[in-house]
Amino acid sequence: MAEADNQWNHEQISSALEVEQLDVNLYRSKTLYLPPRARGVFGGQVISQALVSANNCVDPAFSLHSLHCYFLLSASAAVPILYNVDRVRDGRSYATRAVRAVQRGRTIFLMLCSFQRPEPRQPTFQLPMPPNVPSPDACEGIEVIYERLFKETTDAKVKDFCLTALEERRRSPIEVKLAGVRESEDGIPIFLYWHKARNTPVRYDPAFQKCILAYISDSQFISAARRTLTQLNQGGKGPTKVVMQTSLDHNISYYDDDFDCGDWLLYVIISERAASGRAAVHGRMYTPSGTLVAVCNQEGVVRVDDRENIQATAAKL
Fold first, then answer.
1. Residue limits of the Acyl-CoA thioesterase-like N-terminal HotDog domain (predicted)?
2. Residue-range definition of the domain harbouring residue 89
């Protein structure tokens, strides 16, 4: 398939998530997206394609309620990924599926997901949406922010970064708007983004909506740890140049079956800890009306260039 066709297919969320069934419990990716300068295929696409494969192997009476996964190796966009689904358990209330993603004979990704017969009569509560969040119409798209920074800066490296970010944004099937940056009581930045899937002419069924949400959940997520490091270490308090950033694991808990990723979802993200070259991020997704539909967590490798600290320490010895 020509490169232009691959790009177009990725820009359609339905095509980006599509897999081909090869055998019972065995599926193959149709398109894979390698973001500019990324180490491998976009992790959200791998999660969502694995979910589509698992959904195809479970009774529709069961609804996905959680997933836990590990990114083991970077995936190449040049070779299809095979998704092997293991029907681990089928109970009366819950069903469990495991998905192993393989490329060139090596396992690159593992996911365990759980499905539940819905229990709508059980009691509910939720953490409310942050107050006074501007509506999507009042927020700037990420592309606009990068375009303005590109025009304002004279730093060649910053310009190059902006061009790379703009290329990634223009090819993404997800539209993103910044709704603001706030501070927790402890001074940790909280990032607020509106997300929605582009090019959704119809409202998909709830099972596929959860797959789209999984794709969205990896957008602007582990990068919040990098932004937090930069913000907290302003003024020369420590190294801030991130030289490696990649996901290690990811989990999502779903608490609603009635949301539309073709409409906006508010992603509230905070990075609560970084140490030993790793960082954790936590996210909550809300509908515009304030319903908390999903809770996400991720840990990733976030390494900074600490050579200056090493040299300064050595000079004191």
1. 38-116
2. 3-116
Distance between start and end Cα atoms, the chain = 59
Task: Name the pLDDT band for 169 (thresholds 50, 70, 90).
Answer: confident
CATH number of residue 87's parent domain: 3.10.129.10
| Contact by Cβ (8 Å): 226, 302 | yes
Identify whether 68 is part of a domain: yes
Tens of pLDDT, residues 201-233: 788 999 999 999 999 999 999 999 989 988 887
pTM of the predicted structure, to 2 decimals: 0.91
Sign of the C-alpha dihedral, residues 248, 197, 97, 281? positive
Positions of E strands within the chain: 19-23, 26-29, 63-71, 82-90, 94-103, 106-116, 140-141, 174-183, 189-197, 242-254, 265-275, 278-286, 292-304
| Helical H segments across the chain, by residue range | 3-11, 13-16, 43-55, 142-152, 156-171, 206-217, 223-232, 307-316
Query: How far is 119 from 111, CA to CA, in rounded Å?
Result: 24
Q: Considering the domain boundaries, does residue 301 fall inside one?
A: yes
- Encoded tokens for 149: 């920074």
